[in-house]
Task: inverse folding
């Protein structure tokens, strides 16, 4: 049980971080959230300013709070921007994880790390935890590199690969934000119908994280809806559910989409192992 454990949640102002903090608050579990810039938001829980890509900042905060569990939700997730700003992407997604890992290694801290379906090339789909990783964009490469750093240095870890995280009650964060902003203004959006994902409800995700830390589950888990849909179908489902005009959603092919970073065609995740071992469904 984690009632007497101290938990640190990085990226506490992000979609997953906020949901995780909210869940722990409801369960009356003690925790502290960390954010890169504490002045950007107001919080209803204890929060510390920590830049995970800065070794000194990490060391200061981690030594001050001495957590028993670290849940790392902080990441540079804009896939196109990762191609443009490779140094910043590397610092957050790789160096940041390395800083956390070094502390966890010294203190034998349980590290829960959020990774991505983009560690796969998308040629096959329905990927299980043991399938070969072969990222095709820089974002995916940094997420795989961070996974390897964790695996090579500590044994008390849990890596969660997930995909297209959303919250129907929070349109300000996650991939739904730009969609909601467009359709609210009656602006059309172009969505590909030849790329496939298993989208993830953020509340299901954080419930599974709670099971992981409460039961001390380690290893690699794929956690998402386990329902393979095209991105077009995922977006249409959201638009219909929230009463927006479905005619605003245009179906296009990947060849028609002007993007900087290459995307996997089918990065759908096989989540049966997690569903069986975590019983989060």
Result:
């Amino acid at each position: 049980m984690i009632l007497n454990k101290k938990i640190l949640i990085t990226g506490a102002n992000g979609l997953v971080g906020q949901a995780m903090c909210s869940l722990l608050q409801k369960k009356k579990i003690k925790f502290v959230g960390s954010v890169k810039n504490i002045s950007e938001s107001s919080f209803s829980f204890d929060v510390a300013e920590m830049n995970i890509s800065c070794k000194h900042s990490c060391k200061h905060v981690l030594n001050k709070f001495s957590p028993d569990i670290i849940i790392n939700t902080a990441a540079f997730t804009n896939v196109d921007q990762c191609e443009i700003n490779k140094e910043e992407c590397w610092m957050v997604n790789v160096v940041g994880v390395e800083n956390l890992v070094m502390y966890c290694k010294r203190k034998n801290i349980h590290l829960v790390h959020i990774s991505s379906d983009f560690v796969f090339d998308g040629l096959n789909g329905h990927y299980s935890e043991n399938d070969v990783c072969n990222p095709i964009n820089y974002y995916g490469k940094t997420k795989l590199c961070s996974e390897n750093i964790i695996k090579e240095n500590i044994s008390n870890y849990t890596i969660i690969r997930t995909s297209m995280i959303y919250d129907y009650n929070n349109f300000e964060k996650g991939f739904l934000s730009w969609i909601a902003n467009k359709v609210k203004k009656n602006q059309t959006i172009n969505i590909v119908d030849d790329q496939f994902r298993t989208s993830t409800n953020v509340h299901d995700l954080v419930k599974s994280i709670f099971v992981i830390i409460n039961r001390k589950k380690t290893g690699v888990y794929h956690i998402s809806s386990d329902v393979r849909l095209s991105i077009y179908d995922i977006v249409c489902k959201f638009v219909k559910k929230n009463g927006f005009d479905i005619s605003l959603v245009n179906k296009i092919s990947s060849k028609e989409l002007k993007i900087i970073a290459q995307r996997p065609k089918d990065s759908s995740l096989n989540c049966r192992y997690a569903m069986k071992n975590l019983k989060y469904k």
Q: What stands out?
A: Residues 36 and 160 are 22 Å apart (CA to CA). The chain is about 40% helix and 15% strand. The chain has one domain: 7-167+200-226+269-278.
